[in-house]
Amino acid sequence: GYGSTSDTLVVFSAQALSGPWTPHPMNPVLIDLRMARPGGAFVRNREGRILLPVQDGTLGYGGGLGLSELLDLDQQAVRLSQPRPVDPEGDWPYPKIHTLNRAGMLEVIDGIAAVRKHSGKQ
């Protein structure tokens, strides 16, 4: 099947950011609720490996975050490793995490928590 926006990864390429964009011949390259939805931008680790934060949707939106290594990227295939879970530690106040991004020395983590809304009625 074609999956949905929550479990499907499609890839496009272009010579310039302004396009034109070309879909990967194998699109959709992945249909998997555990790892197809990106949870941030690609990053390169200290060993030079390229990692993609991925959302684990098996427990619902924000159910978990993992890091998958980009193993292959060419016209024949796009292959990611099975995700390694990212578990928040320390004083992380939110039960769910779904985004991890880095730009230089800045890291951003996005978590989800239930918030009670007051109706304003007494």
Helix content: under 10%
Largest sheet features: 6 strands, antiparallel
Number of helices: 0
Order of helices and strands: EEEEEEEEEEEE
Number of strands: 12
Beta-strand proportion: 35-45%
Structure description:
The protein has strands at 8-9, 12-13, 22-23, 30-31, 37-38, 43-44, 50-55, 65-73, 78-80, 84-86, 96-103, 106-112. It has a domain at 32-112. Strands 5, 6, 7, 8, 9 and 10 form a six-stranded antiparallel sheet that branches. A two-stranded antiparallel ribbon has the order 1-4. Helices cover 0% and strands 39% of the residues. By secondary structure, it is mainly β. The mean pLDDT is 88. The relative contact order is 0.17. The chain contains no helices and twelve strands.
